[in-house]
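The aim of this short unit is practical: by the end, you should be able to scan a pair of folded records and say something sensible about each. We start with the first protein, listed as its amino acid sequence and then its structure tokens.
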Amino acid sequence: MNKAHLELCSSDEWADGLKKWVIPNALEGIDLGDDVLEVGPGPGRTTDILRDMAPQMTAVEIDASLADALTARMAGTNVTVLNADATEMPLPDDRFSAAVSFTMLHHVPTDAEQDRLFGEVARVLRKGGVFAGVDSLDSTDFRALHVDDICNPIEPAGLQARLINAGFAEAHIEVNPYVMQFRAVK
């Protein structure tokens, strides 16, 4: 993430919006179960909220400095932070009851890598497990926040088929003015 984007995603204002609107809307009606995977926590403002929603959680973060900072901050909690690439997770098949991802999928550089990430999430989820989350829609303002940063927004119209092709039994996409919410069941 570039500096401005990291500052936004680390801010109290962002955390407040996540807690009030983003996470409750994305997870409405979903039982996360006993062991949750968070893909791409970044600075961990989502992790702060999610860790109270499940007995055990694993956060997979590709950026070593962000993973190290989150590991230190989550010491002694129910969260294990893993510095790894979510397109090749060193985790066992069928482990997690649910997986979540909040506003990070557009940071995966290519569609092929996004599809590998979807496949990996399907692999590590138990049968019946849910993959849910939110990602931003493409816009001029959104692109401006990502100058000198990876920005590969997902086209909502094609996401359902991509998730099914990755190994999910069903997938549902909902588009709002600025974001796309998704739910896929293995």
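Turning to the second protein, read its sequence before its tokens, just as you did above.
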Amino acid sequence: MQRLVEANSRPFIQFVFRFGDDPAGNGVSPTLSLSISNPGAGAARIEQFSVFLDGKAVANVGDALTHLAGLTASDDLGTMSYAEAAPSYLKAGSDELVLRWPRTEKNAAAWDRVLAADTHRLSFEACYCSIFDECWIEKSAVFRPTPVKSCA
């Protein structure tokens, strides 16, 4: 019975990296986005979220993209919005937008350089727990999360 309760309350975090979106249903627009999704059965308490470039931690998604494409302060990035993913709660069946960066006329050169770079050099990792304090680490390059004792 305990295993059934745990199975019906287990979160499952995954990362969704997209290169286009269609928010208004008017056709896909070139927008780079990253979301954390929880298609699991229970809420996830996201304790830690990390972004890596070439296996090394960077401060946030914006910094990762800047380094990935060799962008400088003089590059016009336009409107780039990103959110801190941790600490936070993510209910079952929901997702949280971490990055949204639309391509515009002003930032086209910078955006195209990011897209031309090898985005597989980027990776993401989250440590999250269930309401029963069972914890896992999810890595973007690995399908199944790894159980851990805690996210400390």
